[in-house]
Amino acid sequence: MMIQLSARNILSWTFILLSVASILNISLATVNYLGFYTALSQLQFRATTITFEQRSTSQPSILARVVLDNPANYAGLTVDYVSLLTYFTYSNSSLLRDHPLTDYLTLDEAIGAHTEAAWDMKIPLVSQAASSLSSIYQENSGNVTAHVILTARLSTFLDVFIGNKISLSNEQNITLAIG
User: CA-CA distance, 65 to 147, in Å (whole number)?
Assistant: First the structure.
C-alpha cells in the first residue's frame, strides 16, 4: 500500500509531529519544575575548611573553601553570589565577634543536577588582627574555632513567577587550620 503525499497529508503529518514534539517538551519542563522544591530541600551549602595563612611572603589572610552540593535531579539553579562572615572563638572568649571578617563573591554560575560547586574565598587580615589570631592560636594549642555564617543567593527561570530569588544560609563552626 502506498501513502499518497498530497499537500493535505504532508500538512497533517507535520502538525502531528509538531504536536508530539510540543508534548514532549512540556512534559520534560514539567518534570524539571516538579523537582525544583525537592532540590531546594536537598541542597547542601557549607564551608569545608578555614585556614589561617600566615606565610611571610604574602599578606596574612583567612582562606575558606565553600561548597554547594546539588544531589537532586534539578538542573535549573544559578548561583548569583556567595558571602562569608567569620569570627573566632577559643576557651570562653572570642576574637573579631563585634567586627567579623567578611568576603563576597559575585557569580553567575549554573549548578547542574548531581553536581558540586566549590569556591575559594580569601580575606586579607590587617597586621593587628593577624598577630592577635596567631597569639591566640599558639596560646590555645590550636584549639581555635571559626564561627562561619554563609549566605548564597540562587536564581532560576522561575524567578519571574515566584517573585524573589532564593536565599540559602548556613551557620557552622569549623576548627581553624594553619597554612
Answer: 14
